[in-house]
Amino acid sequence: MRKLCTSIRALTGVRGAVYLTLFLLFLVAPFLVQGQVCAPATGGVRDFTFSSTTSQLTFYPGEASGTNTYDRSTVGRIRLSDGATDRTLSAVKRTIRPRVGVVTGKVILTFFKLTLSTGSSLSIYRNTTGTGTPELVITPTNASSLLNTERIFSGDVTLVFTGNTGTVPENVNIRYNTGDETFTTCRDRTSAVWKAFILPNSFVNVDDMEYYQQNAVPICVGEFDSNKQFVRSEIAFCIRHDLAAATPEPGYSKQFYFGQVSFSPTATGNSFDIDASGSFNNQDQLKSARIMWLLVNSPTGSLAERRAVQVAIWQTLENAVTASLTSSLAQQAQKQVPTLPNPPEPVLSLTNVTGSTVPVSAEVTFALHSNAQTLSLAVSSGAKILSVTNGRLATDVLTLADTTKDALITVSRSTSGKATLTATYNVSGYWNLSNLEIYQPCDTYRAGVQPFLGLGQGDNARPFRAASAEWTSALPVTLAGFGATAEGTAVLLNWATSSEENTDRFEVEHSLDGRRWQRIGTRAAVGESKRIVRYSFRHENPADGPNYYRLAMIDQDLTQAYSPVRSVVIDNPLEVSLFPNPVTGGKLFVNGAARVASVEIVTAAGAVVRSFSGGMEGGMDTGGLSPGVYLVKINGKEGSTVSRRIMVAR
Fold first, then answer.
1. Virtual CA dihedral for 310, 171, 113, 162, nearest 10 degrees?
2. pLDDT tens per residue across span 416-449
3. Sign of the C-alpha dihedral, residues 483, 486, 487, 489?
4. Which domains are delineated in the chain?
5. How many angstroms separate the CA atoms of 224 and 229, rounded?
6. CB-based contact 156:95 (threshold 8 Å)
7. Does this model's pTM top 0.70?
8. Rounded CA gap, 611 and 602, in Å?
9. Sheet with 172-179: strands ordered across
10. Model confidence at 521, in pLDDT bands (50, 70, 90)?
């Protein structure tokens, strides 16, 4: 599994050696809920059978029209019987045409159950006519040898059935999936998505575990880059089993094709209400640590093992930390992680600093608690650690001489290429809470679809970060300085260059965790200069807590490098309250409404029953709400979210 890393481009050093500079910082990274727009629902899920006597039906993944034609059949399953009618058929055909616009994709058939009646056959052809030489013929004789195997076809596929369908729908269960990009999922199966159906830089469900009732958990969450290219997938377990699962499984109240529901991955950090109790507390941290133990130490090879882990996660989340649990895995997690240190962990952030004509160095700052004195360091093959200041490096363990001062690490590589530095806080009792990722569904499905959780940065149980670097030729710009300072509720960035040659622009990037970056502004460069040139950018309404900034320095030929990362902590919490509480059917008011962007009133089951945005000084109407307890999610204009509980009475 590929670790999520901060990617950087380091600059050429001297005397043939190239150097990488990294900045490591222990700090608290709060959880912020970020809304995400869903991709247009242009595909669909469709099951089909051979119970109809219609001689041929055709299915398309997207929009289509015509007699005996079904559109939005992106994924689904194929069965012989609808459960009501027993038919004896001769050469009844079902055709899947994997076409979206002018693009022809692939069809993947996965055989989960194949129980055919005596004398029956299911033939598969690589055409739309169902004639000629079949690619595969399934009979009662060879069916058992095909179970849990798959076939991948480029272009049109026609299935032709002859024989008796029977009346048991699950006798034959074949999953079909279409797409123009195929890849291997965390289940070691082939899956596919249509690039036209997904968003760039997105995380979507790309596979469920097995295809049968209640198979939806866990799932494989796949990552796609800015070009919609598949990057990786990881197993992800649900944390709200009272909601629908994002999987094409009949039997759940909602069905989704792969790519329909996109997720926003967010590190749990130190403030996520993981058990959905309505507020964050130390039980959330302890439950997160136990879940981390489960994900790292539990076997997941078989379906039974994966479902056992899922049950253990549910029991851990839904019960008090001292409760007697029935799941043996959950019991083990309680025993292995009885308590957490105070504070529970140093949240380790790894970013980078660059240079061009001299060796550059990595700065290590321990800012959270006095026991944080050691880090395990590792570099990939071809690179080496040259030197360390304010610390002692023995083999791969860095021990700080003075935890109140910074340490500098210099890493070099003699040839161009890529290398990775990993820093791990490998101390017993501390768990990798900040690398536990919560995958929140996009806006359209946020109220009704399960959020999932995964390991995020791989299977390392201890707090760690990794950064990769690719050594290239030096960028023709020299950065003389770069700083970030808080000015009220804004952040002012100032930087200067001492020389520029063919420089095109500076792109200002912002991050909440030092790993995932978003461009927030651009400044045109002077382009050609041998004197000091100064630039500035003002970031209005940054998030409360740590904010990270860097510059992408881009040449006219699109060569680029990154500046050092600067961080600014905004201590301006969203302090709001609701009144009256209880509310008796009239208006509900927000104290501090001027700082509020939107409000949602959510039931205990997670359904959004009221939404308000802007101009809430006049109150929010609660008329028509049934009596009971509701969760009110308040989204601040600066990006933070708080939750409050209210009672509606009559």
1. -150
2. 556 667 777 777 777 767 667 788 888 877 777 7
3. positive
4. 45-179 (2.60.120.290), 185-342+430-467 (no CATH), 347-429 (2.60.40), 478-570 (2.60.40.10), 577-648 (2.60.40.10)
5. 5
6. yes
7. no
8. 9
9. 48-49, 75-79, 172-179, 106-114, 150-154
10. very high
